[in-house]
Specification:
The protein is mainly alpha-helical. It contains 5 helices and no strands.
Length: about 120
Amino acid sequence: MKTILKIKKNLALVLLSITFFSCENNVEEEPIVGGGGNEPCDSNISFADNVKPIIDSRCVSCHNGNQSPDLRTYEGVSNNAQRVRSQVVSRRMPLNGSLSDDQIELIRCWIENGALNN
């Protein structure tokens, strides 16, 4: 009977340890790009001049209405701005290549400046 109780205690300790370490180490951090967002963004970044050309050349081949989100228009990009920011800053998108640090910084700053239609 003591052996079974000892096994149960050891099993509980092992399960508790596994739970603790899996939660502790399963944290996804956003990579630092272009100063990590600590520097002020340029408020003159334009959707039409700076952001749309990047989206058109690197994102619209997939996100063209057949795959969500649809990024063909300002509305599509602005309605998904935080999702776009998260995906490009973490470098999960675009799947068919990567954006330069400068391109990522332009998109990040444009969104942090309010994702204006300018």
